[in-house]
Amino acid sequence: MKLYVILISVVAALGGLLFGFDTAVISGTIIFIQPYFGLSEAGLGWTVSSLLFGCIAGVFLAGKSSDLYGRKKVLMLAALLFFVSALGSAFAHSLVSFLFARILGGLAVGVASILSPMYIAEIAPAKYRGTLVSLNQLAIVIGILVAFFSNYLLVNTGENNWRWMLLVMAAPALLLFVSLFLVPESPRWLVAHGRNDDAFNVLVKTSGKEYASADLKEIEESLKSQEESTFRDLLAPKIKPLLFIGAILALFQQITGINTIMYYAPKIFANVGQSNDSALLQTILIGGTNLIFTLVAMVLIDRFGRKLLIIVGSTGMMLMLAGLSGLFFTQQTTGVLVLTFILGYIAFFAASLGPALWVVVAELFPNRLRSKGMSVAIVSLWIACAIVSIAFPVMLEKLSGGFTFLIFALICLVNLLFVLKYVPETKGKTLEELEKQFAE
């Protein structure tokens, strides 16, 4: 694998790092902002999920604008939005201004959630595409771990500790903006806009001279005589099944419960008797497990394929959540037992559905519909994430941990059955080869 491809993938994946940081940093602040803003459990759910409403708008912003102006320029806009959001949320003195800043951050997360994996998929050689797109998920989990770790380090900085926690994001946002000046535009976007010579130069650097001409010809053929796409084109008979697979798989990635842990872990630990310091320390273990098993997924995803990883991971997630539910029903919720099942759940998610979802949705759709197809799939993801984030504190309060985690375990079972029946294997083929396969 060329070092050049790795470097530009790392730059694009910084968008994923900010995505992970911005979505996870709120977990360490909720025990401080809830009393600061006087929030009820339902109010806390809405405040935590405010970022996610921005995400939904950001996905649609990314799809259309990246087709017009390029993946690179719109990622630069996202970097600026991350920076402004960090400053705005850190210095907010009213709930309205805090929510506005978080929604701006959500716009940036929405843009990064679609463009970082899309850009990497369009720039990466087929043989390594799964690994390189998984680099985006690795960056997401590093961002989550950095958020958990910085929250722990800053917890004893006084009454403004939550402000410092939120301000940290400004630094990587600035780094992403500067770094994007050093990477090329997607060759597939360049061909779509008639810049074939520029696309060839990029392909020489990413695939090598011996493959660049053939790759360029394949991209030109896939785009030839294709009219400008619309969202209506996603409903064409041969595309609709792909849209269904992408949207439902994205939905399951969230409603299987991952962000109930990522956003509310300190609250879960506090509910079973842990102190604030101890709860935040245990979130670092969650972030570390997430990172380690994402690396495992990167090693396995191009070797064993996307589908097998999701099948094994979904089974493990179901068993871990069922075990966690059993602890709450039997009132055996000592910190060690709860932490063990949570870490097991995180490990199975990080080694399967976490990274595999981003790879699959970047591969399903033909070139001309990729941004729009991914937009719909990832909007499905963020809507599901918002619903779960709003509902979880209320579920925990009204239903108890036993019934709450049992519901998520059953959803994992449904996801397993869905993957077995509908999700295709996509490893080892170029995007153009997959386009032909799905068109048959």
Question: TL;DR of this structure?
Answer:
The protein is mainly α. The protein is built from 20 helices and no strands. The mean pLDDT is 86.
Number of strands: 0
Number of helices: 20
Average pLDDT, rounded to a whole number, is 86
Q: How many separate structural domains? A: 1
Round the Cα radius of gyration to an integer and report it: 21 Å
Helix vs. strand class = mainly alpha
- Low-confidence residue ranges: none
In the CATH scheme, what's the topology name? Answer: Growth Hormone, Chain: A
Order of helices and strands: HHHHHHHHHHHHHHHHHHHH
Task: Describe the fold and architecture.
- This protein is mainly alpha-helical.
- It has a single domain, classed as Growth Hormone, Chain: A.
- The radius of gyration is 21 Å and the shape is globular.
